[in-house]
């Protein structure tokens, strides 16, 4: 049984962990901030965008792109604040993952492909609350968590980034939230109501589990050798009670055997 180490506590609803340049980055939806936690335990605020859900990822040149749910644009961090990068249309956008060529996938009412020049193409629609996304180590498969359907859904990724051959990657016992791939092609997924992170193979075979005392919202394999599983966790009271989650948010870590791979890139 894994024992998770608390790395940071007394935050709000924490989400979207990313390992970048030797720091663990994450979003605090309660405060509307994107922050970075150093290996020494110090926390700094990178930017604010008070429109949760709030997700972000880093491009191959280190640029940070941000999805704020109620914004109709994909945003880019310019070093001091957020600027509009691409028109998404409507709102309700949720998760983001960026491939090694700088192509950006955003989900919500649909999965969108945003090219490096800012052009946007719709790839798929009709999801039951799309949530975390990840690209396989070879870059040929994109997996999207469908929380309400309790499944991971996958697509083939063509050389130009287009998605095809939609299928079920794994049916799950609970609603998946944030996800990440490891070097063996397995996926770690976070589950809020069941308060755990689980590692599964394609098809759903359970390989490992980390149990928590509160909801697990997302997970990311990071650290110098990508064998540290970082978990964002908090007590969930509903989107309309975000202020009540203040102080319940934690960043935790567990050492695992198989290193992270694919994208988001740790």
TrEMBL record:
What organism does the UniProt record list as the source?
Answer: Rhizobium ruizarguesonis
At the top level, the lineage of the source is Bacteria
Q: Does the keyword Hydrolase apply?
A: yes
Residues in domain SMP-30/Gluconolactonase/LRE-like region? 15-235
Transmembrane segments in this chain: where? Answer: none
State the name under which the record lists this protein: SMP-30/gluconolactonase/LRE family protein
SUPFAM superfamilies recorded for this chain?
Calcium-dependent phosphotriesterase
* Keywords for the protein's UniProt record, in alphabetical order: Hydrolase
Name the Pfam families on file.
Answer: SGL
């Amino acid at each position: 049984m894994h024992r998770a180490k608390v790395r940071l506590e007394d935050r709000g609803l924490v989400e979207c962990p990313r390992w970048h340049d030797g720091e663990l980055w994450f979003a605090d939806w309660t405060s509307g901030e994107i922050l970075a936690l150093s290996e020494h335990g110090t926390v700094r605020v990178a930017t604010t965008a008070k429109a949760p859900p709030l997700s972000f990822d880093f491009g191959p040149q280190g640029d940070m792109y941000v999805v704020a749910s109620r914004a109709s644009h994909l945003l880019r961090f310019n070093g001091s604040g957020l600027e509009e990068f691409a028109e998404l249309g409507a709102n309700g956008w949720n998760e983001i993952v960026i491939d090694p060529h700088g192509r950006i996938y955003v989900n919500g009412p649909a999965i969108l492909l945003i090219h490096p020049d800012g052009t946007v193409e719709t790839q798929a629609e009709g999801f039951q609350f799309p949530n975390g996304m990840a690209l396989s180590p070879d870059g040929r498969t994109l997996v999207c968590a469908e929380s309400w359907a309790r499944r991971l859904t996958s697509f083939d990724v063509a050389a130009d980034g287009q998605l095809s051959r939609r299928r079920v990657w794994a049916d799950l016992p609970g609603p998946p939230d944030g996800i990440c791939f490891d070097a063996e092609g397995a996926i770690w997924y976070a589950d809020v109501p069941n308060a755990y992170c689980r590692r599964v193979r394609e098809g759903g075979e359970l390989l490992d589990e980390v149990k928590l005392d509160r909801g697990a919202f997302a997970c990311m394999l990071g650290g110098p050798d990508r064998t540290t599983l970082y978990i964002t966790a908090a007590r969930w009271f509903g989107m309309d009670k975000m202020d009540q989650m203040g102080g319940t948010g934690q960043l935790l870590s567990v050492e695992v055997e198989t290193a992270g791979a694919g994208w988001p890139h740790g």
